[in-house]
Amino acid sequence: MSSASEFVDRPDRVARLSIFRRFISTPSGAIALAVFLLVVAVALLAPWISPQDPNYVDLANTKAPPSAEHWLGGDTSGRDVLSRLIWGAQTTLLGAAITIMTAALAGIPTGIAAGYFGGSADRGLSWLSDAVQAIPGMIILLVVAAGTRSNFVILMATVGVFMAPGYFRIARSTTMTIAHEPYIDAARVAGLGNTRIIFRHIFPGIYAPIIIQTALAAGISMGIQAGLQFLGVGSSNTPSWGAMMNEGFRFMLTNPLLLLWPSAALGVTIAALAIMGSTLADLVRMKAPVQSRGAASRLAAMQTPSSENFVCSPEACAVRIEELRVFYGPGIAEKEVVKGISFDVRPGEVLGIVGESGSGKSQTVFSLLDLLPQGGRYEAKGLWVSGRPVHVLSARERTKLLGSEIAYIPQEPMSNLDPSFKIGHQLTEPLRHTFGKSRAEADRLARALLARVGIADVDRVMQSYPHQISGGMAQRVLIAGAISGKPSVLLADEPTTALDVTVQAEVLELLRELQEEFGMALVLVTHNFGVVADICDRVIVMREGIVVETGEVNAIFDGAKQPYTRELIAATLDDCEGRRELDAIYHSAGNKERHYAATGGGKQ
Q1: Which of 132, 336, 520, 569 is 20 to 30 A distant from 246 in Cα terms?
Q2: Do 423 and 461 meet the contact criterion of CB atoms below 8 Å apart?
Q3: How far apart are CA 266 and CA 219, in angstroms?
Q4: Do 383 and 466 meet the contact criterion of CB atoms below 8 Å apart?
Q5: Sheet holding 489-493: strands in order across?
Q6: Angle made by CA atoms 295, 298, 304, in degrees to the nearest 5
């Protein structure tokens, strides 16, 4: 059976293409890039497009105005201004390149090391970065210029050292965030060394902000370079925009054009770099879809058309999702994990979302709750809960829907209960602060809810901490908390995965009873088609972020259209006994054992 990944381009390559396409489709980004590329082209082609040697002196051209022979006129020594301006672009870009390379080589590795290893490495490297920032840079640059006889390379490398703390801070802060992600711990447990983890897992997450920093730092380095040359640091035989500005400044009143041309060239170049950096930053924060046009069309061919997924109008649905997409990752490394799915749920209906791990089931639920983990974001053409358009509500209005209109049951019961508080407090707190119940009324309702979900010893559970109850009890507590606000939609994300197999059937039966009793729509996420067969009315089959099949449960079981769906059904474990059946077997076995002992162990 073919996988959906066979039809999708590599996410990292697609992401880069998407960022570039969005960048050039932005007027500011396209214009800034065009200007910068023009300056680069002028610098590279200087030997061929320069009208004259930049140091050729023609005394007849001294302070000459623009003419057909000398388009921008002559300087105070009789040299052609246009030629020196063209060659000055080469000098300026070379100096910026030396500065950026030095700053990146000094700042990025040390920032990654500080953020990744922490401890004394972080303290020492951070102290060093702070010390570099505290040094008066201009004084050191003047000393270096005097000591090296204004060696251009050494001088610009020194500027790079002073710009390294900017790279250090960005690399350190981003690395610290990534280094605490669970997948980094998993890589360590898998035996990967620090070097491989840094290059394969850390660096792909930091190069997006590094690119932005580079665009901004390049403009700053050009300004510093021009400032040094304006102060007379450097050789007069080397054409540069800063030296031309120095000369123009001295004759600004008598020949202002000498100051205009280099100032305009420097200003336009720095502005282009600044606009490129800010535009890239906006695009990274915006994080638009990263899917290529070809991949989108191929996925659309596999996925059920949106119009066929809907069974009710947005206002009449308990839940309706149109073209939901979920993205993870920083900037141009962003990956799309849910790829434009659409479906709806009728009031009082039980919808199952089934698929293997990584198919995007839980990400869909987290998007509905607006609770995606750090680094994730979603976008959708439309989201409706109980007929209300969530996509047009403010963040505060969406928060008010949680608990009252839409509730959630997680798959890890223990991790969703605060170990610092008793069960009773955790159940009554939302009732009091969200629904305005009094202390006594909240306590009474909490006890009634615990009894309703099948907990016999309510008093003991109310006074217990989470570690003092079993996983099955903890899941029942979470179910009680979820239904306390009488929501119209209940989202259950694999609610039986962390439970013993003998408890799973009871929890599923309880969910079905509560759904019917409260008239809720139940969205059940699972990887087990047996669970779907037990309690669901309709099912959505997902794989690799797309919907591959949807329909009524009976119809899917009788004649699934997709091979993947048929494989999921075939992989379902049937005939598993629940606790009641196992208890009956156990007691029956116990009676036989007692009878066996009473008869002398079977001896004749």
Answers
A1: 132
A2: yes
A3: 9
A4: no
A5: 406-409, 489-493, 521-526, 350-354, 538-543, 546-552
A6: 125
Residue 359: closest CA among 547, 550, 110, 82: 547
Reading the block at residue 174, the tokens are 């981003």
The DSSP result for 360-377, as a single string, is SHHHHHHHHHT-PPTTEE
For 561, the 3-state DSSP assignment is coil
Which residues of the chain carry a pLDDT beneath 70? Answer: 1-19, 182-183, 185-187, 189-191, 235-236, 283-309, 330-333, 498-502, 572-604
Written as six digits, the tokens of 111 are: 């920032």
Q: How far apart are the first and last CA of the chain?
A: 61
Q: How many CA atoms lie within 13 A of 371 on its CB side?
A: 14
How wide is the angle at C-alpha 286 spanned by C-alphas 294 and 31, nearest 5°? 80
pTM of the model: 0.55
Question: What would the pLDDT profile of 171-189 be if each residue is shown by its tens digit?
Answer: 999 898 888 776 676 567 5
Distances (CA, A) of 226 to 89, 237, 349: 11, 15, 70
CA-based radius of gyration for the chain: 34
Rounded CA-CA distance 298/460 in Å is 57
Contacts of 257 (CB under 8 A, 6+ apart): 65, 66, 72, 73, 81, 248
Cα(527)–Cα(550) distance, rounded to whole angstroms? 15
DSSP track, 51-101: SS-TT---GGGTTPPP-SSSTT-B-TTS-BHHHHHHHHHHHHHHHHHHHHH
> Cα separation of 284 and 16, whole Å?
11
Residue 406, phi then psi, degrees to nearest 5: -140, 135
- Write the pLDDT tens digit of every residue in 321-354: 999 999 887 655 678 889 889 999 999 999 999 9
Q: What's the Cα-to-Cα distance from 241 to each of 140, 226, 433, 593, rounded to whole Å?
A: 22, 6, 66, 99
Residue 256: the pLDDT is: 87
Q: DSSP letters of 412-431? A: -TGGGS-TTS-HHHHHHHHH
The predicted structure's pLDDT at residue 13: 46
Residue 558 has, within 13 A of its CA and on its CB side, a CA count of: 5
Identify the bridge partners of residue 350 per DSSP, sorted by sequence position: 522
